[in-house]
Design goal:
This protein is α+β, with helices and mostly antiparallel strands and about 350 residues long. It contains 13 helices and ten strands. The strands form two sheets. Strands 1, 4, 5, 6, 7, 8, 9 and 10 form an eight-stranded mixed β-sheet that branches. Strands 2-3 form a two-stranded antiparallel sheet. The longest helix has about 40 residues. It is rod-shaped, with a radius of gyration of 43 Å. The protein binds ligand 2U9. Ligand 2U9 binds next to α8, β5, β9 and β10.
Length: about 350
């Protein structure tokens, strides 16, 4: 029996995996194993022999069973250790670089100028890009025969044959939003309307879709002086200069009277634009006192209320601020040119605090 014990304990010690353990179990202590066979032999023994051989066989069986269990547990531990070693992750490694998007310069310029006007008390209003010709033209003192209606290179929406209602248009300016705001809110009102507008035009300085921000302030006793101050504050904050000189040139728009185009003093040194100093002037926006007919179209009494309005091209403003030469780059380029101009990934801390150039 000692030989048997030595044989199986030796095999168990040598077993390399669970399958080997199972094979030893079947051979040694299984139903038809060696110990079971020996148990059967007990019947042939004398009672005295049986008294020593029986307990000895049972003890051997227990010993082999516990050696099998211990070896099984040791193998499982070793397998776990191996997995922990081979599947180990260094969570302190730096993450792999990920491709990240950036805010579009037009969005960035739009956010910046919105924040500046918000600080001066202007709310932001938005409206539909598909408009009726009343909101886009008539309410703005641009009647059917008016040349501006043709000048604005309007995109007209298709009407079904036999439908003789005036067609909807892609808004040619954000002014309809201001008419809608006047209708909704009445006076007094201070609002800016940033957003995309459409004109059938395409060359180095025009794209069929571009962005405007228009501003409107209506109250009792508003004058050109309020307009001038507002625009000066805006230009100083947007171009981050302490002082700036604005030049108001008489102009004409159907929706304002009087009307003025506004230039800022600037210089071009070696192709580099400097805002606020120099001997040059650059046109940046149009403005004026809102025409009484337009105030009335918004449902406000022009005998009681006056107002100023202005319109700025955001795309051009972004080009000037960030030094981007061709307007078309805004709409047919990818991230590489944005990176070239120093536009940072969305989660960079300098997002709203100017550019890291
Ligand atoms: C209402 C009343 C008046 C908005 C105005 C301009 C002058 C103007 C251009 C600037 C560059 C368009 O993007 S651009 O091409 N805009 O010159 N816009 S006054 O006047 C309004 C608007 C709404 C109710």
């Amino acid at each position: 029996m000692d030989d048997l014990k030595a044989k199986y304990l030796g095999q168990i010690a040598e077993a390399a995996d669970e399958a080997a353990i199972e094979a030893i179990r079947v051979a040694a202590v299984g139903k038809k194993g060696e110990i079971a066979l020996m148990m059967r032999e007990l019947g042939k023994m004398t009672p005295e022999e049986r008294q020593t051989a029986g307990p000895a066989l049972n003890a051997l069986k227990d010993e082999i069973n516990s050696a099998l269990a211990a070896k099984k547990a040791a193998l499982a531990d070793a397998a776990l250790d191996e997995r922990l070693r081979s599947e180990w992750l260094d969570v302190t490694l730096p993450v792999r670089p990920r491709r990240q998007g950036t805010l579009h310069p037009i969005s960035q310029a739009s956010e910046e100028l919105t924040a500046i006007f918000a600080e001066m008390g202007f709310a932001v209003a938005e409206g539909p890009r598909i408009e009726t010709d009343w909101y886009n033209f008539d309410a703005l003192n641009i009647p059917g025969h008016h040349p501006a209606r043709a000048e604005m290179d309007t995109f007209y929406m298709h009407r079904a044959e036999g439908d003789n209602r005036p067609p909807h248009v892609l808004r040619t300016h954000t002014s309809p939003v201001q008419i809608r705001s006047m209708e909704l809110q009445g006076a007094p009102i201070r609002v800016i309307c940033p957003g995309g507008v459409y004109r059938a035009d395409y060359d180095q300085t025009h794209t069929p879709m571009f962005h405007q921000v228009e501003g409107l302030a209506i109250d009792k006793g508003i004058s050109m002086a309020n307009l001038k101050w507002t625009l000066e504050e805006f230009v100083k904050a947007f171009f981050e200069v302490d002082d700036v000189e604005l030049r108001f040139r008489a102009s004409h728009f159907p929706f304002t009277e009087p009307s003025a185009e506004v230039d800022i003093r600037c210089s071009w040194e070696g192709g580099q634009l400097k805002i606020g100093e120099g001997d040059d002037w650059m046109e940046i926006l149009g403005s004026g006192m809102v025409h009484p007919k337009v105030i009335a179209a918004g449902g406000i009494d022009p005998e009681v209320y006056q107002g100023f309005a202005f319109g700025i091209g955001i795309d051009r403003l972004a080009m000037l601020k960030y030094g981007i030469p061709d307007l078309r780059a805004f709409f047919d380029s990818d991230l590489r040119w944005l990176r070239h101009y120093g536009f940072a990934a969305l989660d960079m801390p300098n997002l709203h605090g100017g550019l890291s150039r």
